[in-house]
Structure formats: C-alpha cells, structure tokens
Amino acid sequence: MSTHGPSSSARLRIMLRLLDAELLGAMEHMWRAEELLPRYRRYLCAMHAVVRASVPLMERALERATLLDMRGDPLGGPLAAYLREHIQEEKDHDAWLLEDAEAAGSPPGDALGPMPSPAVAALAGSQYYWVEHHHPVALLGYIAVLEGYAPAPDLTSRIARATGLPDAALRTVREHAALDTGHLDELYALLDRLPLTRGQESDVTVSAMHSLDALTTLFVRLGRSAAAPPPRGAGPSSPTGVTP
C-alpha cells in the first residue's frame, strides 16, 4: 500500500462520491410521498432478498479468508477477524425485514415466495463468485456500498407521515439509520490497516462500482409506481407500473 497521497479508504470514498448521483436520485424518487405505501412494501421484500444473503455470504468469505491466512496471505487474518465480528452485527436483520413487512400489510409469502429479481441476483450473486473464485477482499467493496447508502436519519418519520404505518413496520429503516455510519467507519478503518496491493485495492473498487450500479438499478425499479396487489382471490388487475 502506498504511503503517499490519499489512503485506500479516501480513494474509495472519492470514487463513490463521483459516481453516486444516479443512485441518490433513484433513492429520493423511491421515497417520494406519493403512493409510498405499496412501494415501501416492495422495498421491504426486495431488501429482504438482499439482506438474507448477507450473513451466508460473509460466512463463506470468512471460511475463505481463514484458509488464506493458513496459507500465509497477509490479508487473511485481519479480514477474517473483521468478518467474524460483522457477521454478529448483521445477524437476524433479514428477520427484521419480514416483521416490518408483515406490520406493513405484506404476509411473509410476499417476500419468501417469488424468485428474487435479476437486480438482486446481480447485486449479491457477483460477490459469491468473487469470494469463491478470486479473493474475499472484494466483498469489502460491496459492504462499503450497502453501509454507505444507509437510510437518512429523517427517513423513518417521512415514511410514517406518508403512509400512516406504525413504528412496528419501520424497525429496519430506523435501526440502520443509526447503525450503519459506525459500521462504515469500521470498514474504512480496516481498509487502511490492510496491506493491500494496488491490484487488491482495485478489486475492492471494482466490487464497489458494480455494487453501486446494481443497487441503482434496484432502486430505479423500486421507484416505479405500481398498483397494490389485488385482494387474495380477486381477479387480475390492470398494472400501473413494472415490478423489480
């Protein structure tokens, strides 16, 4: 790792800020007050599809990092230690989303039944490939994006005002607005401790860029207006938008 110029974390932050305008616009459009309730339900189901992959993905990355440490890879030990702690921090967040969805009027089957969208598969699935067939350090770029674009502190109150939903339907948004800033600081501190080669820093950057693009695609699709699903047993309705 070079001792001159910006640190690894600073370079990653700069890159993301240069490229995130489309994502920020898609997120703001997604959270507009008009007809937010059906979009929020779809958001919870889509985020469940993403988040339920997080712990299994980190567990596999931990296995790979541990093996690499045994083989003398200088990244293996510190990466394994970080993942071991972060797995504990992220446990059960998929259950939070199911509980929020149910409190918002979506039964668990709405999240668990349908095949996850290609946007979700592109976001999480690429990380499985890089962890398995390249190096688990790439996962840090993915985590940087997911932690770096956490809900804004005022988002919980905005959703409540626009939808009339109770606090029980807003736990994930509320908790992640508080938790993710600290998690992001931990990740960037790790990046600056790791003895990354330029190639390995590039791996993290490529992973982050891909994650930013895939997350943007997901939010663009979630932001499209869509009619609420018909009551169970009712005939098909005429859709007003495209689901992700």
Determine the N-to-C terminus distance.
40 Å
Q: Which structural class best describes the helix and strand composition?
A: mainly alpha
The radius of gyration is 19 Å
The H/E string reads HHHHHHHHHHHH
Largest sheet: none
Q: Uncertain runs with pLDDT below 50, 5 residues or more?
A: 227-244
Report the sheet-strand fraction.
under 5%
**Please, what is the average pLDDT?**
90
- What is the number of strand segments? 0
Number of domains: 1
Q: Identify the CATH architecture.
A: Up-down Bundle
What this model shows, in words?
This protein has helices spanning 8-19, 21-30, 36-51, 54-70, 76-90, 93-103, 108-112, 118-133, 139-148, 155-163, 171-193, 198-222. It is an all-alpha fold and 244 residues long. The chain has one domain (45-222): Heme Oxygenase, Chain A, CATH 1.20.910. Mean pLDDT is 90; it is low at 227-244.
What's the quick description here?
The chain is mostly helical. The protein is built from twelve helices and no strands.
Q: How are the secondary structure elements laid out?
A:
Blueprint: H1 8-19, H2 21-30, H3 36-51, H4 54-70, H5 76-90, H6 93-103, H7 108-112, H8 118-133, H9 139-148, H10 155-163, H11 171-193, H12 198-222
Top keywords for this entry?
single chain, 244 residues, mainly alpha, Heme Oxygenase, Chain A, 12 helices
